[in-house]
């Protein structure tokens, strides 16, 4: 293996769920820069078209979009059969609504867990079936979270779904290694997006959180690019079942 070329994703096809904005958009861009052709998904056709156009303008032709709500397993199977086999799946689509645990109702729980955990499993299953039938193996990367391993008030459903994703990463990595499919996770620390934006409006919260991050700042979306490209690439060919936390040192210091 030549280490200089081992990070290239040239000739690879990647599917990024929830690529219309935030982290998914940034990861799609990173995969394109590494040479992959990328399909992004989202629930809203207009938002999807806008994201595809923006990525095409910034990174060139290797981008398409597919409408997909990951809570609908039939849609997942339809999208995978429409786009054909992929080499890389990034299970990024996710949702959160902070809510005191005494107030969480079944609908809220189901929305969060169905999107973050059930959706990720069925996307992984559909992608893995396509990888197995193409006989080429592949790489799956699940978006975990600090709440996978730290208790955060108001995040019972979200934290449960993200802890579940760590378990899913372990289980699938063990089961699909013999098919040449590696399954890893990345766990972003604090990144300002639509999902988390409400926190960043509170200067006291920002100051307190930043003080807990050894590298002294919140994450920028580009900070995630190297990790996703690495885990997707042949450079990580002997790495499976791992979650890489990209948090400026937060977890190591608390
Ligand atoms: P955003 O809210 O900015 O983006 C969420 C993305 O997920 C959108 O593209 C949205 O697409 C898509 N999405 C949401 N629900 C569904 C659904 N049911 N079906 C298909 N797509 C869906 O969030 P982030 O970019 O911040 O988060 C991306 C991932 O990273 C999530 O899994 C999140 O849990 C995780 N994460 C984020 C952190 C952060 O600090 N921001 C920290 C740790 C983890 P659309 O609305 O267009 O359908």
Q: Give the number of DSSP strands.
A: 7
Structural class from helices and strands? alpha/beta
Low-confidence stretches: none
Write down the CATH topology: Rossmann fold
| Secondary structure tally, helices | 9
Note the main sheet. 7 strands, parallel
Task: Report what the structure shows.
- Belongs to the short-chain dehydrogenases/reductases (SDR) family.
- It comes from Mangrovibacter plantisponsor.
- Residues 12-189 form the Ketoreductase domain.
- Keywords: Oxidoreductase.
- Pfam families: adh_short_C2 (PF13561).
- The chain is of the alpha/beta class.
- It has a single domain (5-249), classed as Rossmann fold, CATH 3.40.50.
- It is built from nine helices and seven strands.
- It has helices at residues 22-33, 45-59, 73-83, 106-134, 156-176, 197-200, 203-211, 225-232, 250-253, and strands at residues 13-16, 37-42, 63-67, 88-91, 138-143, 181-188, 243-246.
- Strands 3-2-1-4-5-6-7 form a seven-stranded parallel sheet, sandwiched between helices.
- Strand 1, helix 1 and strand 2 (37-42) form a beta-alpha-beta unit.
- Helix 1 packs parallel to helix 2 (45-59), helix 3 packs parallel to helix 4 (106-134) and helix 4 (106-134) packs parallel to helix 5 (156-176).
- The chain is globular, with a radius of gyration of 17 Å.
- The model has no long low-confidence stretch (mean pLDDT 97).
- NADPH dihydro-nicotinamide-adenine-dinucleotide phosphate binds at residues 17-24, 42-44, 47, 68-71, 92-95, 115, 143, 145, 188, 190-191, 193-196.
- Residues 17-24, 42-44, 47, 68-71, 92-95, 115, 143, 145, 188, 190-191, 193-196 line the site of NADPH dihydro-nicotinamide-adenine-dinucleotide phosphate.
């Amino acid at each position: 293996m030549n280490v200089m070329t081992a990070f290239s994703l040239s000739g690879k096809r990647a599917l990024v769920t929830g690529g219309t904005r935030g982290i998914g958009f940034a990861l799609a861009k990173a995969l394109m820069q590494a040479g992959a052709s990328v399909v992004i998904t989202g629930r809203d056709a207009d938002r999807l078209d806008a994201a595809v156009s923006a990525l095409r303008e910034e990174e060139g032709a290797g981008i398409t979009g597919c409408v997909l709500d990951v809570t609908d397993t039939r849609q997942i199977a339809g999208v995978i059969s429409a786009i054909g086999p992929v080499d890389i799946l990034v299970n990024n689509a996710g949702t959160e609504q902070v809510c005191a645990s005494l107030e969480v109702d079944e609908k809220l729980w189901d929305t969060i867990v169905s999107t973050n955990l059930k959706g990720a499993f069925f996307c992984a299953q559909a992608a893995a079936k396509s990888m197995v039938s193409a006989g080429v193996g592949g790489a799956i990367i699940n978006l975990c979270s600090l709440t996978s391993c730290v208790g955060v008030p108001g995040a019972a459903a979200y934290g449960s779904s993200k802890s579940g994703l760590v378990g899913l990463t372990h289980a699938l990595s063990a089961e699909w290694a013999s098919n040449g499919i590696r399954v890893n996770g990345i766990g972003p620390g604090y990144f300002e997006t639509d999902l988390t934006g409400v926190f960043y409006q509170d200067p006291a919260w920002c100051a307190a959180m930043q003080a807990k991050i050894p590298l002294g700042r919140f994450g920028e979306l580009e900070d995630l690019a190297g990790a996703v490209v690495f885990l997707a690439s042949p450079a990580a060919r002997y790495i499976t079942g791992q979650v890489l936390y990209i948090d400026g040192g937060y977890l190591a210091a608390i």
